[in-house]
Amino acid sequence: MNNMEELDTGLIVRSLNYHGQQLTKLWDCEQGPSHLAQLNITNLDYHTYSQRQKGLIFQERVKRLQLHEFIAKNAQRLFHADLTKKEEVKLVEDKSKKAPLQKYAQLPPYESFLNIEKSKKIKHFFQYAKVGSLIVGTLTSKNTAGVSLRVLYLEADTVLCVPDLNIKAFCYTKHLQFAVVDQTTTRPYQVNDNIRCEILELVPETEKFIVGTRGSLCSPELATTLGYVSSEDCHVAYR
After folding, report:
1. Residue 204, pLDDT above cutoff 80
2. Could you tell me which InterPro entries the record lists for this protein (predicted)?
3. What's the pTM value of the predicted model, to 2 decimals?
4. CA dihedral 89, 92, 93, 94 (to 10 degrees)
């Protein structure tokens, strides 16, 4: 195989059309005036260069000339077919090997690193919160009417952690089921319990939610997750 056959002519054509006639002239000087013809390269229209020409800076013409000289002098190496050759890769399944463990560092939620005003954070949160969405909150107080919660995070496509925003939610007694602990023990909710609820009513003006744990809006599958949430079962983004 001679040097002519080892060059990627398609890449040469794209490069010359991109850099323009100046590179072609330098190419002829460095590689010989008949080199491109011997490569059967005749389809040079410089259309790409003409589109770029308006945006070229006059003060950078020396840099462009130096680049063209470098390309022309090193054409045999820069356009060698081995550099652009794509080898076929065959995947061989080795059933004897176990799948590699996925190891990664657990970091705080992204918003923890951002210095954003509280009002903007709250507005952003309420843009994602919808009726039927799930939230997890910690019980702060209770009375005969129901329980008050401080929202910890919203479970959506992206988990939004907001324990520092002091967003309130209220669950009326009629919407509240007893806490099921350890899948067997049932008891009334206590202060500091974490509860997963569905949003029944949204009040952005007062930055509050009306929530419930009876699964009246969400799917049956999600309904089974409502209620008491242990610290270990909280989303990893919050933990």
Report:
1. no
2. TTC14 (IPR039190)
3. 0.52
4. -130
